[in-house]
Phosphotransferase
Amino acid sequence: MSGDRVLGAARNDTERCVEAALAAIEPWQGKRLEYAPVLGGLQNSNWRITVEGNDTRYFLKIPGAGSETFIDRGLANEAARRAGVKGIGPELVHFDADTGVEVIEFLEGYRACTNGDFKDASIPHQIIDIYRVLHDGELLSTTKTMFDMIDEHLGQARELGVRLPEDVELILGEYQVAKEALLASGLDLAACHNDPMPGNFLVGDGQPMKLVDYEFASNNERAYELALLTTEMFYTEELINELVEAFYGRADFGLLARVQVCSALADTKWGLWACVNQQLSTAWDFDYHKYGCWKLMRARLKMSDPRWPFWLKAL
């Protein structure tokens, strides 16, 4: 295939890493393999693979250095396999538990969503349809709630000496209040994806949307899954109300409050994650610390909303 590299013709360390991963896949050994980069991953190295004699092409993901700090590879594999079986994700065909290298079917005719796609209100409704399928049925083997994630990142930040905003204690104080209120109300656990980055949703003309990249999947509060989506996309309150009704089948104040509180926790979680992530590697071509501080500021803005205490009381 024009533009693809043939196994054995690596020109640099990145391509040699790809070839080492491909050489370890036993069913492909001895076959002619071609590989080409796929753009879009923030941390991982992604590649399209063509295998001699196979009509299907494949998507190879090689985890980025340092990403193991945040990711349970076994759990991610469990969630990805389940999604493939349910038909909401691509079929998973290979997984190396030691390296985290994963191979899934390459979805021909699909492309990753962009932020621009999410301006179309039909997109979040399609996502909610996927979430319903994902959340239905048995829980995953591991529960890791937004509280576990936030507390883990706080521990990492302290251990690594990560610089956080001066007003972070105000945010963390409200986080503790919200945590106590949500735990007192009882968590509604479901098998969640936990990472609604636009590029994780694939669309194709006349094809059902697919959800990929289950690295942050775990059993978590159901409302947090929706809150992540609405927060990530800056959706208006009018659209949030509409999506809550589509998600739950109703939109009473208690459910709306639950999603609003979880949206502040979502920004707290990802804000801390980004600040910690910046400290783990200087190789990222992205200012994670700036991004993390912005997320934390937005969490504080939500927590300073005059309705915040009423949302907490409604949980």
The longest strand covers residues 45-51. Residues 112-314 form a domain with the Aminoglycoside 3'-phosphotransferase; Chain: A, domain 2 fold (CATH 3.90.1200.10). The first helix runs from residue 13 to 23.
